[in-house]
Task: structure prediction
Amino acid sequence: MKKYLLLLTGIASIVFAANVNASENESFRIITISGKADKHTYVDLGLPSGTLWATCNVGANNATEPGNFYAWGETEPKEEYSWQTYKWTGTQKVINKYNNNPNFGNPDNKYVLDAEDDAATVNWGKKWRTPTSEELTELRIHCNWEWTRNYNGTGAVGRIGISKTNGNIIFLPAGGYRFSTNVKSENEDGGYWSSTLCENYSYRSYSFNFRDINVEWHHSRRFSGRNVRPVLIKK
Result:
């Protein structure tokens, strides 16, 4: 599988080209279950940090469902996703928490979600949290990624991640994202929050996104609704 790295200046995105379709052996791409914590299963992908990844999203009943959509720093899904309904601001110009820029109010210089604002921790318990930008980068780099429109015959669309270290499998559904009252790009895009605020833009946070032709890393507006794939908190 051919890959290349493209750094797009100005929008701080890293894009990895990836094969468009899963292999002929797609039926054998079974999600690996390495263990369980607080009723939720995880996979050990042999990552350098030792991070263990959940096998499904917050709010999902199984690994092939997108689950709930959350604005960054919120812990419950809602009907409308906009600056007007966002918990930490009424407008894009004033941010009440997680702000590193005096142009958006009084800076608190908080860059990572507190546990009480983490959708993974609040909904799954103290053993789980939303991954940092570094952990999502590690996941992206240390797996080979295949696109599928019918994961194992379930009809689920998304990315299959295959560990370069131990061959274990993770699946990320392409649930799209929430903007206003609508679900956008369902079965076309996957969007997953990190717990990390963007250094240069306090109204944005880092997210892991993908389509059929690429896997990319960039920053997204905090009020938008995206999925959360938890990681197990290390002891």
Summary: The chain has one domain: 30-207+217-232. Confidence is low (pLDDT under 50) at residues 1-20, 23-27.
